[in-house]
Write a structure and sequence with these properties.
Number of helices: 13
Strand content: under 5%
Shape: globular
Distance between the termini: 34 Å
Strand order of the largest sheet: 1-2
Radius of gyration: 22 Å
Amino acid sequence: MTKPTVMWFGDGHYQHVIFGFGPYITDYEEQVLLACIVCLAVGQALDDNALYQSREHTEALVKEFDLKNLQEEYGIVGDIIIIKGTFKDHLVEWVESYLKAVHGTAKANAILDDIDQRIAAIAPFIGLHRFPEGRHFKQWAGNDSKALMKVYLPVIEGHIPAKIVQTFHTLLEFTYLVHHNVIMEEILVGIQDAINCFHKHREIFHQSGIIQMFSLPHQHAMKHYLDLICLFRAPNGLCTSITKSKHIDAVKDPYWQTNHNKPLGQMLIINQHLDKLAAS
């Protein structure tokens, strides 16, 4: 779609919206092959500064190259990746790898067990989610990551170097700043400072040999928040978990109510019945 639609937003203002995004489910290895959708950085060099994307440039590439070269050389595909997140997929797993590399598997497991005990011992409080088994739950969802972020910083204190703690701190600082409903000039400065400090402190993972490079799509996306906020205003807490929750109601739950034999038609009927019940 290229024609904008006028929509009313939660802040009481009307905005012009162009719908052009679609989910693309893939594993992380394939995500890394893809390039940024905002700038011309390619998947192998996402840490480098690059010019912004433009429709004219993309259309010229599409005319000149086949689909294989477009994806491998320029990261142009027909869909957009939804990436799970820097917190769990990167930092939490890097901490585990760091502990094993420095202390050995046996001692690292003992430290991780103590971290789990600290997580499980978090006192009940409004706005905090409890994890009785620590980090050990079957499937991480976006809400799990957001809930664990609130308590993870104090539970790792004393077990890992200060630089790693500061890496988590700056990521949390960035996350909470960009979730403000109203973003003023001083918050924009704070966001840039958090990004700079995050890039500085995360180097400990590279220096210790845990990772070879930081060419990671989600971390690269952090660099574009400032410009995109200036262009399109505050994200206002926008999160892919919003659409994920709708996917559960509209797809997963109806699927389990079918007999699993050609379920699509059954799911559509179930959703129609649910809509009628909700409207009654």
